[in-house]
């Protein structure tokens, strides 16, 4: 018998679908998802309406259940939901449930409806003392659990506040001491952290988390003390070095002056070869100006024992000196004096002797020397005097 084939556009016969399934089959995927989302057990997002702009009765009934009962019952319901989220490490959601639990405990007590009648109505009388005890137990649990959420979310101050609220209810709550101590440690509030840890250990000396926390606090204290010691020693050394440098300059009769417009010299500075020995060799940052040509050179460390010609010897020839005016023998050097005038600097005189004459100044930690060609020196000096005359 020849084998029968089914055409591509034909479908094999099948039993008819039930009417409800046929209706679902005919819906578009998006419509189906939207409909499922309206069923509380299938929700992936919160739809507050029935899809037509009205109320979602199923959702409203579910939400209302969370607020049925006494304060303790409502708060306990939110606490349990918060605990479920906390076990899943969903700290933000857990905290929100704990917030609602606390709000419920602070809200009005739900009393039976005085107008309710009928055989289905069961009269309920609340024992206020028993309810207060229940509420206190729940409140303590909620505060300490919310403290954990805040600790995990690094809301350390909120964690400490929740622990304080817990301890006002139960001064023997070990978790409150541990979590507040941990939060204080994170904030580097070591005194408070140690206090919380010690109080907890007074209640339970064998508590492993508290003992581990105490070890961390002690280690942090040692680290901070070590850092502070190094900082203090550094400051003391810097102050001693400044005093030694000041003594070295004074003993050499070198004048110094500071202004509010000090140039940026990076790490170039006036310093002693041995920072703690005022008799050791001084070095200075020196800027050599070529005022006739508006050029300059910077020498980071010019020893007091060195002479100007030693540096000019390797600086010259200057790349921009097309006229070859700048040679060691063909230039003169000048420095401004503290009185506002000029002194000629001997190229073969050590910098220490020049500065020690008591006439020039080291301004803002920088020595300035002007170098000009001999045949232009007189004209430059005249211009300098004119400028100085205008400013005095």
Automatic annotation (TrEMBL):
Keywords: Repeat, TPR repeat. Residues 276-384 form the Cns1/TTC4 wheel domain. Residues 10-20 have a biased composition (Low complexity). It comes from the Eukaryota. GO terms for biological process: protein folding. Pfam families: Wheel. InterPro entries: Csn1/TTC4_wheel, TPR-like_helical_dom_sf, TPR_rpt. CDD domains: CTWD_TTC4. Belongs to the TTC4 family. This is TPR-like protein. It comes from Clathrospora elynae.
